[in-house]
Q: What sequence folds into this?
């Protein structure tokens, strides 16, 4: 989904815009009167149609903002359920009042009304995908237990009774996550970039690059942009300047323990650390195909010349040994048993005498097992 955070720092209030990348339908949660120009600009810039404004609490200011957007954008206004009309504001037209359990379609997305994350913070919260949004925090839903707060992505600074940050609380948003199993790296990068944008960690130029980078990932199914593509989307910023700004952004992210920006064609050791197994090049896979065929056929590790002959003489022994060297290095990085090449073609051994070695050095190799699978 498309996600943007808006805030009114004078009131320490947050607002969220979510939208479907497929249908371009959008919703604003807890609209703010001070952010109207920002909403309008973003909706127009991204070609989004505002379908809903939703509120987590019956708040006069937010209700007025929703009514303004209702008139300007023909959106539906949704407030939390209210058993009794408490003030004249409630007499104004409201399209729907939501209780926990209610849901609203937003293209291919669903906005679910859920119980508030914190008592007294709001009357309801809203869940979109794996995110639960409340006035002071965003939490990730634990997919195994369906509970919130077990894996937190964004969490607001601790606030006092009046909603203002407590003394000593330096950041609005605090990122508590390192990684989550089964979540694409690109999604984690987006979450970390949103955290840094919310905290205003970047200079104005860097923030422009980050916002453009996020737009590109959202609209291109998480394909990383090249520097030239970012430059073409930014006014008065050429490719060289993009590289410099991306370098600065990357190091700011790393210093905060967050994932860095990645451009198309670049690799990053910080991203490689998220892998759980080696990734092989096409040449390494070609070598492994021949190597495994020989192991299965002869019940022993082959030599370099053996593998070269298996490849019909198309590859030299030097090429074979270089592939074996890079594969061993990758296995070592992931603490896996090291691939074996005989120095010369050994005499045939009885299968029984080789079985223990093969079991220890070939079958126990998780990398080989994964590759063959």
A:
């Amino acid at each position: 989904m498309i996600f943007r955070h808006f805030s009114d720092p004078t009131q320490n209030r947050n607002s969220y815009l979510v939208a479907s990348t497929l249908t371009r339908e959008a919703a604003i949660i807890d609209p703010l009167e001070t952010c109207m120009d920002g909403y309008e600009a973003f909706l127009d810039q991204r070609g989004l149609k505002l379908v809903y404004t939703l509120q987590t609490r019956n708040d006069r200011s937010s209700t007025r903002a929703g009514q303004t957007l209702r008139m300007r954008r023909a959106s539906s206004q949704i407030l939390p359920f209210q058993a009794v009309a408490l003030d004249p504001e409630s007499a104004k037209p409201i399209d729907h009042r939501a209780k926990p359990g209610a849901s609203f379609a937003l293209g291919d997305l669903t906005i679910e009304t859920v119980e508030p994350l914190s008592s007294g913070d709001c009357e309801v919260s809203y869940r979109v995908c794996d995110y639960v949004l409340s006035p002071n925090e965003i939490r990730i839903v634990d997919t195994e237990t369906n509970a919130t707060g077990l894996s937190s992505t964004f969490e607001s600074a601790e606030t006092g009774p009046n909603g203002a940050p407590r003394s000593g609380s330096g950041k609005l948003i605090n990122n508590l996550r390192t990684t989550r199993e089964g979540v694409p790296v690109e999604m984690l990068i987006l979450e970390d970039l949103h955290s840094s944008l919310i905290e205003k960690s970047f200079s104005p130029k860097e923030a422009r690059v980050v916002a453009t980078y996020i737009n590109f990932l959202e609209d291109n199914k998480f394909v990383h942009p090249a520097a030239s593509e970012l430059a073409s989307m930014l006014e008065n910023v050429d490719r060289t300047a993009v590289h410099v700004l991306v370098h600065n952004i990357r190091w700011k992210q790393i210093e905060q323990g967050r994932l860095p920006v990645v451009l198309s064609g670049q690799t990053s050791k910080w991203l490689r650390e998220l892998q759980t197994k080696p990734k092989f090049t096409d040449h390494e896979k070609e070598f492994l195909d021949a190597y495994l065929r020989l192991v299965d056929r002869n019940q022993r590790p082959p030599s370099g010349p053996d593998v070269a002959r298996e490849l019909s003489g198309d590859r030299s022994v030097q090429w074979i040994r270089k592939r074996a060297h890079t594969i061993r290095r990758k296995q070592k990085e992931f603490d896996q048993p090291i691939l074996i090449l005989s120095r010369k073609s050994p005499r045939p051994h009885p299968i029984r005498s080789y079985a223990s070695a093969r079991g220890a050095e070939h079958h126990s190799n998780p990398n080989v097992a994964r590759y063959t699978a």
Observations:
- The two ends are 33 Å apart (CA to CA).
